[in-house]
Amino acid sequence: MGKDKIFKKKKKLIQNFTFGKQTAAVFDDMLDRSVPFYREIQRMIGEISSDFAQKGTRLYDLGCSTANTFIMIDSMIPKEVTFVGVDDSKEMLAKAKEKMKNAGLSRKSELKYVDLNKPFKISNASVVIMNLTLQFIRPLYRERVIQSVAKGLNDGGCLILVEKVLSPNSTINRLFIKHYYEYKERNGYSKTEIAQKREALENILVPYHFDENRELLLANGFKGCDIFFRWYNFCGIIALK
Description:
alpha/beta; 41% helix
């Protein structure tokens, strides 16, 4: 696993963050050092998925990146469930294919190159996972994305959504962000790296308030939702079809 040094050197001009070759090469390290309780969140996703995954159906991971979720939850899900990974980075999908092969995943699985900002179709799904994915979809298209997910989920299925969220209170929001950056420093990122990545993500990662995400889900095909994980500005949500 490569070490994330993408923003280590001071740059004169910060380009928008991308999920291309450079990011794919160090993405696993980036996740481990940037997402609080990442492995615990994955374990919880596996537990919840096992409650809803039905034999003969599909489990989708929208924004599957390097297939960490599939590898983590494989032993928790019936082998008769097909894994479908979707991502708009060919480099991430190539890494995912390699890692799934090396991990010995034997179930039926598919990896698809799809831009979630454009119309897409889900079918016969009992579980859909969006782990830190919706926040990267343009706000203009998020309602359509959630509608597509709800339409493709079977009755009784679930959406597992993990997002960064904003607090409606500006003071609390600043405190949460401050403590998050302190967390990244404890994991070896410098203030320069943190600041440069923040700038690179400014127009790419657009978080909502929790209530905005909740309203989006309930207005577009889901009958109930609740929080299953919360750490400052990171939030895990389960929504039921």
